[in-house]
Amino acid sequence: MTKISPEIEESWKQALEGEFKSEYFKNLKSFLLEEKAKHLIYPPGNKIFAAFNLLPIEKVKVVIIGQDPYHGPNQAHGLCFSVQDGVRIPPSLQNIYKELNSDLGIAPSPSGNLEKWAKQGTFLLNATLTVRANEAGSHQKRGWETFTDKVIQTLSEKKENLVFILWGSYAQAKEKLINTQKHHIIKSAHPSPLSAYNGFLGSKPFSKTNAFLESKGLKGIDWNLNG
Questions:
Q1: Contact 210, 184 (CB under 8 A)
Q2: Phi and psi dihedrals of 50, rounded to 5?
């Protein structure tokens, strides 16, 4: 078995060292190597840990939890809900922008790239970090969820006064991993077109997040992606 040493930012590498040495992660790595030999995988290998590489653990303020990377060409780049510049904005992100406009009066960005949020302290974590092209959910239950659950637990344990934004039942199931005495939870329906009108639109997650951060003496997130 080749040595597993993911290209991941140093503070995360240290915090998650035990996971990278674990049997399940070795099995996950073997699975991914097999998949890559036969199929096109998203996001590109150098983007799998982009959420981690853009944001050292000590700078995390907000955690948004998604489920799966996008599985279309040039979409996924390692941040949940985000797509690369020049790619058509997916329906869930269109609704996120709609709510951002309603909540804070910020006009929708022409780009779906959320890196600006990440660089300010918003950790955009998918529960599964890879997917086979055009096959939604194809890498679920292979070990990624074990890893990302540990990421959530690590953030809960090591940090305080984080805002966890849990959209939809899948993300809300992760609340059991979070110490709600130390952290703030914001929950609503998922921004998907199937559920956005059942409680996502009008939920004001962006202003609520900043109100909490500022109440703890922390700088809020500039959610404006324009310019």
A1: no
A2: -60, -40
pLDDT of 3: 42
> What's the burial of 72, exposed, middle or buried (CB within 10 Å: 0-12/13-18/19+)?
middle
Full DSSP string of 62-117 = EEEEESS---STTT-SSSTT---TTSPPPHHHHHHHHHHHHHH-PPPPS----HHH
Residues 40, 41, 44, 46, CA torsion sign = negative
In the predicted model, residues of the chain with pLDDT beneath 70 are 1-5
Q: Is 126 helix (H, G, I), strand (E, B) or coil?
A: strand
Q: Which of 226, 152, 166 is nearest to 199 (CA)?
A: 166
Side-chain-side CA neighbours of 165 within 13 Å: the count stands at 27
Three-state DSSP class for residue 178: coil
Helix (H) / strand (E) containing 52: helix 50-53
What's the pTM value of the predicted model, to 2 decimals?
0.96
CA distances from 67 to 58, 122, 173, 184 (A): 24, 16, 11, 20
Alpha carbons 147 and 150: distance in angstroms, whole number: 5
The Cα 151–Cα 177 span in angstroms is 10
**Maximum C-alpha span of the chain:** 53
Active site residues: 68
Give per-residue pLDDT as tens, 103-145.
999 999 999 999 999 999 999 999 999 999 999 999 999 999 9
